[in-house]
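fyi for ur records
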Amino acid sequence: MKAIRSLTLILLICLIGQGKLLAQKDYYTGIGFRAGPMAGISLKHFIASDAALEGIFSSRWHGTLIQALYEKHHDVFNDPNFNLYYGGGAHFGYWDLNGHQHPWYDKSGTYSAFGIDGIIGLEYSLDEAPISFSLDWKPMLNLINYSGFWMDDIGLSIRFNFR
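which gave:
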């Protein structure tokens, strides 16, 4: 069953990738994987030539976090394939610290998390393929229950882009 789901996902990505290849700010939607302390799935959709919405479904500390971000994009390095982006948004989710050694929190239990996020990053889109890479820093402030300021979320994403 797991193999069928994996094959279906690969086929879907290949079919979506058959659309017209576009430059960085001309692709409409990208989906891929985000590596880092909060690894997960990233979905970015442009709502204007210089603005995008990004959703990230990630996992950390035996829990799950959903993040929604608004990002502004600007060309850098005199290269239309490079973009600097920045923005903000919110997150919600939970962490299960039972049986898990947390480096800066000495309690156990399951905690809900809700707060605000910032993001700044650099994205590069390939001309030859519908693929983009991004490196970003996403600090966040948890406001409810498990409160605190987190600054360690640096992520590397790879996305398949399509219209």
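Residues 6-24 have pLDDT under 50 and may be disordered. thats all i got for now
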